[in-house]
Design a protein that fits this description.
The complex is a heterodimer. Chain A contains five helices and nine strands; from the N terminus they run βαββαββαββαββα. Chain A has helices at 15-25, 57-65, 98-107, 128-138, 169-172, and strands at 2-10, 29-37, 43-51, 70-75, 81-92, 111-115, 119-126, 143-148, 152-155. In chain A, the strands form two sheets. In chain A, strands 5, 6, 7, 8 and 9 form a five-stranded antiparallel beta sheet that branches. In chain A, strands 2-3-1-4 form a four-stranded antiparallel beta sheet, with helices on one face. The longest helix of chain A has 11 residues, at 15-25. Chain A is elongated. Chain B is an alpha/beta fold. Helices cover 37% and strands 17% of the residues of chain B. Chain B contains 23 helices and 20 strands. Classes of the chains: A alpha+beta, B alpha/beta. Chain A binds chain B through residues 10, 14, 17-18, 21-22, 25, 55, 58-59, 62-63, 65-73, 164-166, 168-169, 172-174, 176, 178-182, and chain B through 120-121, 124-125, 128-129, 132, 148-149, 152-154, 182-190, 305-308, 310-312, 322-323, 326.
């Protein structure tokens, strides 16, 4: 099944490589991976969509935590979350089919961001299913080029304690000192 | 607060000294020269190796024998890539080492400069973590963090690649300001109270429980706790190869080694148990055999510090994540004493059936068997030597016939199975424990992979005894060819040098043994000689290690010795 894992990492050189290398090394097949800035400049956020057999996600999470630069990992596959990706689709658009195309774009709440006499670029934002649907209806017109970002995802509701905040271990670990560097 | 101006090279040594390092293993070269130049001003002993792989194995042997962090140093490019095998070895066996490599100047990185290689990229999957340091200001923190990461949690290797200009430039050295800044870790590592209750319920209801003790027992320092636990509940203990020594071999609850070449009674006991308590072990395929047929009627309690090991191979009914010692401290007071008399009697019966056919009890047929050599070596050293083994048949025979009473007394490459490990690792072990009697038990094949380190032994004037178990073959591979490739011995016969002359050329006393009767006198002579000795034991050529679970086979379906001559180790 497809799992969505959100990973907060230190914003340092080479961290993307470490995460990607881990997935390759442990044979976790990445469907998409997007990475970018967060509300804190020292932290980057990755959304990894990964195809995993049932019950394997916990192992990926555990392995990600073994990377020293990883701050927090959350498997949000079955959580209430908003997930979005962006696509730019260049479609064959001769004058006779253009009105119909523009209608479709409206239905999908997408936008036309470039227009020439023969083609147009549609920009669409949404979850993967919506974009897959748009691609399917545009396909008969002739898709000339397509670029899709990976998905970014966020849990709904109030945020939890900030990743990397040292407060986490005080209540749960008790008197037992556990080094988390595994 | 200590504040002064130092070069990056000086900061390297200053930091190592403050971390308690007194010995490093290394090999100089262009990109690490500034560090070597500064070294002479610090009270750290540098062991000049003959190959950088040797330096990493020495650091590894140092860490395993002494329990500290081993340090290896090399230059950029080939110096660094030569370390790769040693780093991977340490990674697979959770051995804490720190490797410091020189790197070309930071402005040259990416230009394919002379002796430039992307060693942080290369070692990414075989280190716990690694650093590329391009500024003198960052050296101290990188080293402090590296030591913390290497030794904490599940230990492992850390590499620090330091550019030449970072070594050459000067900056303010501030030890206190360079404290490790490692992110706080996940909050859910400690077991919940419910997990303990569940574990206790399984332990108390088990009739045929068995402890599987791994390297984690030694790494956690939980030997006393494991013993207390086992004795209180009368639960027998089987060990992985790297677990050997964590529990005294002579203890009534000790069963011996499990797995591919484990004792028959151990593997049968595992298959018939109803509760496996896995303590700091990871169910390697060499230990389980066919997973579908592995201990099918047993519940599993997995006590493990690395959450990524839980349910990786064998599904745990209860997982207690954390440091073994701490977990056992919580469990032991709640354990109800038990007898398990029937179960222990049953295992004793399995054991008895095997030992009557043991090689030690059979008449001498004039041949010299490796098992004899190891057995005699064990007797003569009173089981108290630190034995460092290589990889192959001799390694398995050592595990079967040398009965270890103390932790850190068997040092061997388990997970990666690195031939050539023994000789350099023994040098490291000797530096960690100068007063220990260190024996290398090595095959004729593996010995030739790193035998240049004999020169290091002589240059360092250290006392190591080397026992070559020489059968003229790459013995374990030959055994597989015998069993599974219809005796087609492709590239396994070895035409060896005269090891005695070779040793003497290095300045090491050499001896040759071809008969059983010479074994004990030669070992005695070697022990009496103050200085390194090499004994070439010319043993039976086509002997095999029994029992053997064929790779992927069920654990109880072992290949047994066809003749009655050699079976397996007995209680001697």
């Amino acid at each position: 099944m497809l799992n969505t894992i959100v990973v907060h990492v230190e914003n340092k050189p080479g961290v993307l490589n470490r995460v990607a290398s881990l997935c390759r090394r442990r044979a976790f097949n990445i469907e998409s991976l997007s990475v970018g800035h967060t509300e804190r400049p020292e932290v980057s956020r990755m959304t990894i969509v990964v195809e995993l057999p049932e019950g394997i996600a916990a192992r990926l999470v555990a392995n990600l935590y073994k990377l020293v630069n990883v701050l927090e990992v959350a498997d949000i596959t079955s959580a209430a979350a908003v997930s979005r990706s962006l696509a730019m689709i260049k479609v064959n658009a001769p004058p006779d089919s253009r009105p119909y195309l523009l209608q479709l774009v409206q239905v999908f709440r997408a936008r036309v961001v470039d227009l020439t006499s023969e083609s147009l670029i549609v920009e669409a934002t949404g979850n993967e299913e919506k974009i897959d649907g748009l691609v399917e209806v545009l396909r008969p017109f002739g898709i000339l080029e397509m670029a899709r970002t990976g998905c970014v995802a966020m849990l709904r509701g109030r945020p939890r304690a900030a990743a990397g905040a040292p407060a986490l271990d005080s209540e749960t670990a008790g008197e037992e000192e556990i080094s988390y560097s595994v | 607060m200590t504040t002064n101006i130092k070069t990056g090279a000086e900061i390297i040594w200053e930091s190592l000294l403050r971390l308690g390092v007194r010995t490093v293993f290394g090999y100089p070269g262009g990109a690490i020269l500034p560090a070597y130049d500064a070294m002479t001003r610090y009270d750290i002993h540098h062991v000049l190796v003959r190959h950088e792989q040797g330096a990493t194995h020495m650091a590894d042997g140092y860490a395993r024998a002494g329990g500290g962090v081993g340090v290896a140093i090399a230059t950029s490019g080939p110096g660094a890539t030569n370390m790769v095998t040693g780093i991977a070895t340490a990674m697979m066996d959770s051995s804490p080492i720190v490797c410091i490599t020189g790197q070309v100047g930071s402005k040259l990185i990416g230009s394919d400069a002379f002796q430039e290689t992307d060693i942080t990229g290369i070692t990414l999957p075989i280190t716990k973590h690694n650093y590329l340091v391009t500024r003198a200001e960052d050296i101290c923190r990188a080293i402090r963090e590296a030591f913390h990461i290497a030794a904490s949690g599940r230990p492992g290797p850390v590499l620090i690649d330091i550019t030449k200009d970072a070594q050459q430039t000067s900056c303010k050295f501030d030890w206190d300001a360079a404290a490790p800044q490692i992110p706080a870790r996940r909050p859910d590592l400690a077991p919940a109270a419910g997990d303990y209750a569940q574990a206790l319920e399984l332990i108390h209801s088990a009739r045929r429980p068995l402890i599987l003790a791994g390297h984690g027992v030694i790494l956690s320092g939980a030997m006393q706790e494991v013993r207390a636990f086992a004795e209180k509940a009368n639960i027998p203990i089987a060990m992985t190869l790297l677990g050997i020594g964590c529990f005294p071999a002579s203890h009534r609850l000790n069963l011996g080694m499990m797995g591919m070449h484990g004792e028959a009674w151990v593997n049968n006991a595992i298959q018939e148990s109803d509760l496996l308590l896995a303590f700091g072990m990871r169910f390697d395929d060499r230990v389980t055999g066919d997973l579908k047929k592995y201990a099918q009627s047993a519940k599993k309690i997995h006590v493990e510090i690395d959450p990524a090991e839980i349910n990786k191979v064998v599904k745990a009914d209860v997982a207690l994540i954390g440091d073994l010692r701490g977990v056992l401290h919580k469990l032991i007071p709640k354990i109800e004493p038990a007898e398990h008399g029937d179960w222990l009697d049953y295992i004793q019966k399995l054991k008895g059936e095997v030992s009557v056919r043991d090689i030690q009890n059979l008449p001498d047929d004039g041949h010299l068997y490796a098992a004899h050599v190891i057995h005699d070596l064990w007797r003569e050293t009173h089981g108290s030597a630190v034995v460092v083994t290589d990889v192959g048949q001799h390694q398995m025979w050592e595990a079967q016939y040398y009965h270890h009473e103390e932790p850190r007394s068997l040092i061997t490459s388990g997970g990666l199975g690195t031939m050539g490990f023994a000789l350099p690792a023994a040098i490291g072990a000797k530096f960690a424990r100068p007063d220990a009697e260190v024996w290398v038990v090595v095959g004729d094949g593996g010995f030739q992979m790193t035998m240049a380190e004999m020169a290091t032994i002589v240059q360092e004037k250290i006392d190591i005894k080397i026992a070559i178990i020489n059968n003229g073959y790459l013995g374990m591979v030959r055994q597989w060819q015998e069993f599974f490739y219809d005796r087609r011995y492709a590239s396994t016969p070895l035409l060896n040098p005269d090891f005695v002359k070779l040793a003497e050329a290095f300045g090491i006393r050499g001896m040759a043994v071809t008969e059983r009767g010479q074994v004990i006198p030669s070992v005695r002579e070697a022990r009496a000689h103050s200085g390194p000795v090499l004994i070439n034991f010319q043993v039976e050529q086509e002997d095999s290690v029994y029992p053997m679970v064929p790779a992927g086979g069920a654990l109880h379906a072992m290949i047994r010795r066809p003749s009655v001559l050699v079976e397996t180790a007995a209680d001697a």
